[in-house]
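tool=predict chain=A
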Amino acid sequence: MEKQFDTTKALQQLHEIWEKIYSFLLTPTAIAEVCLILVTCLLTFLLMKPVTKLLHTALDRMRWPKHFPGAELRAALLPQLLILPAIIFLWCCTLLFTKLGYTHFILSTAIRLLTAWMVIRVSSTILGSTIIEDSVWARLLYILAWIAASLHILKLLTPTLDLLDSLSVQLGGTKISILLVLKGVIVLGLLLKVAGAFSKFIDKRIYTLSALSPSAQVLTAKTARISLLSLAVLTTLGILGVNLSAFAFVSGAIGVGVGFGLQKVVSNLVSGIILLADHSIKPGDVISVGDTYGVIRSLGARFVSVATRDDTEFLIPNEYLITNQVINWSFSSKLVRLKIELSVSYDTDIPAAIDLVVQTASTINRVLADPKPVCQLKDFGDSAIDLELRIWIKDPENGINNVRSDARIAIWKAFKEKNIDIPFPQRDVNVKCLPTLEEKVLPKA
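tool=predict ok
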């Protein structure tokens, strides 16, 4: 039968424990021990900063090698190691108390707590600087280890675990307690950290495979990351012994709510997978979406990062790229043909003007010689003869409007040299004088 938490009994036990501690602390020996501990901690705190500074100065004079890994940990480890003299001093006090025939329970407990604190602090600092490489995780690991060690030293670990386990609710056939939740958070956090580190390693390996296209690399890397994270969650539930069938109804209800609330997010995720799978866009492609023209820098789970020529980065949702027209200037090839419209007057030698335009366009740096530029007569306009220049480039990521501008400037200079006019629109205006009112009324003489 499942045990139920008795609040009255627990409060009574806490009251009895407090009475024992209170009566014990009022003894002269206990007061002396507490005073020694307080004075020792205060002196250690006051002397820690100047002593640490002196030690740093002494080590600097010894020319500590900067490339050596210990040099990076020196600043973090020295303050923790200064707790050791305080521990030695308190241990000497316990020997003195023993020789005088006094008890030293508080001193012994303080020594064990300080020793555990120093060891855990030093270990977490080393792990945070070498293995974990994340100060937040290292600090969290330090706090959890310190709490567990303190409860064990004070012989409160087992009662605390029993108390947390008794605070529970029954969900289907599974007992969900505070202890189970805490274990799940700790185990899941560690597994997610391991999965994240392993996925980074896989990403580096995948992006070095030249046989895979950029989109295939991104798709493979994201699939591996999602698989590892899912495996971490399922492994956590398996370690905790959670029956997944107990969450079937709740997860179904939550899934419906999340489905409505995160409809756009899910749509962007699915659209991102489609974009990666059909290879329609990939990192390095030059695309135009609406008024945005730029190079794709990265493909995210929810959006695509497009960097424009003015170094502005647009985050375009994946769904928008699926449902709207996208111009991919480098989908199958980076060869791009640009059209430039020109106008010349009717008295111009058209074949000579066409040859001049083609020769001028060929002198522009980014214009390709093969395919060569072509100029054609497009139409007979109202005020001019319309020509169309077609040129090819192979680097659309460097911009297309700047090439058009260079071509127009070069052609304008060539027309100036050859006295070829670029006409402006002309309109003939005929003014017709209407008879006045007097001329309409009075007869002609």
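Residues 218 and 276 are 7 Å apart (CA to CA). Residues 28-61 form the longest helix (34 residues).
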